[in-house]
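Quick illustration, no need to memorize.
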Amino acid sequence: MTGGIRKKSESEEEYFARIEFERRKKIEEEKQQKMAEQEKERRKELHFMHCPKCGMKLIEVDYKSLKIDRCSACDGVWMDAGELEAAVGLEKGSLGRILGR
């Protein structure tokens, strides 16, 4: 037996290389996720309450019990998720009363 420093085997080198790779990969994935979140926030700030058609500001308008978004330039009407179904439900109720159903 020698009392000196022993040489690393190839399997040890592979193991440490794999550990280092996984560590760097995790750091890169976290960095990519953070960048994606920042981009999502930037896009939200850029597009929030702007017309998807022409880009102008949307104005929130009361329609019965709903708040819908209407474009200040092209007069387009935009609804959030579920608002179309709610508006149709309101109209069916009104039509039912008018028609006596």
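The first strand starts at residue 58 and ends at 63.
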